[in-house]
Structure formats: structure tokens, C-alpha cells
Amino acid sequence: MLGDLFYNLGRKMGPKIRKAQWMWTSFTGTEAEAIRLEHGVGQDLAEEARKQLPLDPDPRTRQALSEVGRQLAACVANRQRSFHFDAFTTGEPNAFALPGGFIFVSRSILELCRWDKNEMAFILGHEMGHVIRGHAIERIVTNTAVTAASRAAPIQGALGGWLKTVGVQYLQTAYSRDHELEADRLGVRLVLAAGFAPDGAIRLLSRLADLKRSAEPSTLGEYFSTHPTSEIRIQSLRRFLAALPQA
């Protein structure tokens, strides 16, 4: 089924996405080629996301993201992957990852972290985990809107055009519970490898649990309301950390 989907996407929308999935699934394609082509798909989406989002112009925000993100990216085992970080201004805390390593976070989520680098590292590491584990590319290519578009008449700017129609709100909702917890675990691995403190993750999630009990649900936005509960995530991470050598 996925093969048919990507055949149609490639035939109707151009060679980039067809080649990306061929490399993704074919034994004859190398991992380096798959990553490079996935990056191209993500780049198209990122260009459209930047048009839709009010990007944060504050250089301090960019600097904080760059510093933390660079430390985390340096610890990714596969050196063929690259990551890019953008901040945007919205009232609600939010973050999402695009295929190829394009990470978008809202200024309000950084403020929720109180600009603590250990907590920021967990947010970025979590989103990077979605990219590394293939959740980000899977989300795009299994979406019913993309499936429908692949059967339509040829359109310019394949996935950028699709994102323009559905909006970035689609990207800001949670993955499956298993994918979210897996991204938590990988995010904490990156946090540890980069020299940040893993208790930043527990601290942030505990603060979220307190906020959910005391604040209006809308205060935290869809990002946190659609994720597994903070309590479930904390329990999962505590078990994971306890099982790590010298955690």
C-alpha cells in the first residue's frame, strides 16, 4: 500500500518524493541517499511552514536554540543527519518536527521551560527523536490528505502545496502514544549524551502536570493536551533512566 502511495505521489507530484520513498524502502538504495532525499522533502515543507508561522525575530531566542540544538545534534550517532531549528511566536506552547531534521518550537514553550537549557534540551531532543526514528516522514506519507492529493491532477510544489492547504496545525498534534514515549526516551538519551541533566525532563513534565490541574486546559494548547499524560511520561522516563548504566 505504501509503495502504491509513493508511486502515485511521484507520478503526480514530481520525482523528489518518489525517489525519497524508493530509497526509504529499497534494499538497493543507501541510507545516505535516503537521508539526503528525506531532507529535500522536509526542506519543501519547512519553506511553507516559515511562510505560515510568525517567526520569532529575537536574536536571543535564535542563539538559545542554536546553542542547545548544536550540542544535541553533535551527539546524534548518524553523522549524515543534520538539524535546523526555528522559533515562532504563538500564544500556546508548541513544537513539531519535519522530515530531514527541521525542528520548529514556539517561544512560549521556551518560556514554559523558563529558558532552562536542560528543559529546552528535552523538548528539542524529543522532536529530534521523531525525526531519527522515522516518525516525522511516516506522519507525512501516511496522511489521508497526502494520499488523496497523490491521485489528483499534477500540482506545483508537491508537499509544500499540501501543507499550504492543511496548515501547520496538523503538524502540531501528537503522534501515537508509543511514538511519543519512544521520542521521550531517545530525547533523554540525547540530553545525557550532550551533557545536559535528564532531570530537566522530569521537572518540566511535573510542572506541566501541575499546570493541567490548576489552569484552563486551553492554556497549554493542543501540543500537550494530545500527548500522553505527564504522569505516564514521567513514569516511563523514570523506568528508562533507572535501567540505564550510571544514569
What is the arithmetic mean of pLDDT?
A: 80
Biggest sheet, in brief?
3 strands, mixed
- Structural class, by secondary structure, is mainly alpha
Distance from first to last alpha carbon: 42 Å
Oligomeric status: single chain
What is the percent of helical residues?
A: 55-70%
What is the count of distinct domains?
1
Low-confidence stretches: 1-15, 150-157
What's the number of extended β-strand segments? 3
Structural shape: globular
Task: Give an overview of the whole structure.
- α1 (2-13) crosses α8 (144-150).
- β2 and β3 form a beta hairpin.
- The protein has 13 helices and 3 strands.
- It is globular, with a radius of gyration of 18 Å.
- With 247 residues, the chain is mostly helical.
- The protein has one domain (2-243).
- Strands 1-3-2 form a 3-stranded mixed beta sheet.
Element layout with pairings:
Elements: H1 2-13, H2 15-25, H3 31-52, H4 59-73, E1 84-88, E2 95-98, E3 102-106, H5 107-112, H6 117-132, H7 135-141, H8 144-150, H9 158-166, H10 177-193, H11 199-214, H12 221-225, H13 230-243
Parallel strand pairs: 1-3
Antiparallel strand pairs: 2-3
Helix pairs in contact: 1-2, 1-8, 2-3, 3-9, 4-6, 6-10, 6-11, 10-13, 11-13
